[in-house]
Design a protein that fits this description.
This protein has 250 residues and is of the alpha+beta class. The chain has two domains: 199 residues, Immunoglobulin-like; 31 residues, no CATH class. It is built from five helices and twelve strands. The N terminus is likely disordered.
Length: 250
C-alpha cells in the first residue's frame, strides 16, 4: 500500500510539471475572393507551466495543420497501345484536403514511429485507409501515390525545421495555404514533446470561406445543383454560338 501511495505521488508530481500550450493563429478566418493567390498563416504561442511561468525545460514543438476531409478517388494511369488509360483505382473515405506539418527538429529525432503514427506527425504517418479490401502492400502503394499527388499540388507538405523556439518559451511556424485550398474549417494542433513523449497539446481553428461573387456562385451550386447545371450548359452553348457568329463576321 505504501508503494502505491508513493507511485501515485510521483505521477501527480510528474503531471504537475507538464507544461501547457497557449496557441494562437495570425488569422482565424481566410476569405477567398476573386484573384485569391493563397496566403500564409503564422502559428505561434507559448510554452508555460500550469502556474503561467516559463516551463524551464527543453521541449520540441510539432504543429499539424489539417484541412476538412472528403472522399477522394485516386486513379492510376497505364500506357496501353500508345495511349494512357485508367488502370487501378482506390477510393479513400476521409482524406484531408490539406495537410501540413512543421516541427522544430526532424520527426525521427523527436519521437518513435509508434508515437508519430498515433498523432500523425508527418506525411509518412498520415492515416489513409482505402475503402474496400486491399493487400497491405497495395494499400501502402496507393496511399503513397495519393500523398505524392497531393504533395506535388502543394496541398500536402512537411517542414522538418519549420518551427523556431525562443528561450524555450515562445514558438512560431509559418505554413502557406495555396490558391487551390478548399473551403471549410481547418484545425491547427500543436504538440509539446519532451524525451519522446507528448506532454501537452492544444488546438486552434481557421475557417476558410468564399466571399463576394465566388460565394454566391458556390452557394447557388450547393443549394440548386440542377438549375446550376442547366445554367452552366446554357452559358456554354451561348458562348459557343456567340464565338461562332464573331468568327463568321471576320
Amino acid at each position: 500500500m505504501k508503494r502505491l501511495f508513493v507511485l501515485l505521488a510521483l505521477l501527480l508530481l510528474t503531471a504537475a510539471r507538464d507544461p501547457i500550450l497557449v496557441p494562437e493563429v495570425s488569422q482565424h478566418e481566410v476569405q477567398v475572393r476573386q484573384g485569391f493567390r493563397g496566403t500564409e498563416l503564422l502559428l505561434f504561442g507559448a510554452i508555460l507551466t500550469p502556474e503561467g511561468t516559463r516551463a524551464g525545460q527543453d521541449y520540441d514543438i510539432v504543429v499539424v495543420l489539417k484541412g476538412p476531409t472528403r472522399s477522394i478517388v485516386l486513379r492510376e494511369k497505364s500506357r496501353f497501345a500508345g495511349i494512357w488509360v485508367n488502370a487501378d483505382s482506390a477510393e479513400f473515405r476521409s482524406a484531408p484536403t490539406f495537410f501540413a506539418v512543421a516541427s522544430s527538429k526532424p520527426i525521427a529525432k523527436i519521437v518513435d514511429d509508434k508515437t508519430a503514427a498515433i498523432y500523425e506527425l508527418g506525411l509518412p504517418w498520415l492515416q489513409l485507409s482505402p475503402i474496400g479490401s486491399y493487400d497491405p502492400k497495395e494499400q501502402a502503394r496507393m496511399s503513397s501515390g495519393l500523398v505524392d499527388l497531393m504533395t506535388r499540388e502543394g496541398l500536402y507538405k512537411q517542414d522538418q525545421r519549420g518551427v523556431s523556439i525562443s528561450e524555450q518559451v515562445l514558438y512560431q511556424a509559418r505554413i502557406a495555404l495555396p490558391s487551390s485550398v478548399q473551403t471549410g474549417t481547418y484545425t491547427a494542433e500543436t504538440f509539446a514533446i519532451n524525451h519522446g513523449r507528448v506532454v501537452a497539446s492544444a488546438i486552434s481553428r481557421v475557417v476558410v470561406k468564399k466571399q463576394g461573387f465566388e460565394r454566391v456562385v458556390a452557394q447557388f451550386a450547393q443549394d440548386d445543383g440542377f438549375f446550376y447545371g442547366l445554367l452552366a450548359v446554357a452559358l456554354s452553348v451561348g458562348m459557343g454560338f456567340l464565338a461562332g457568329r464573331l468568327f463568321a463576321l471576320v
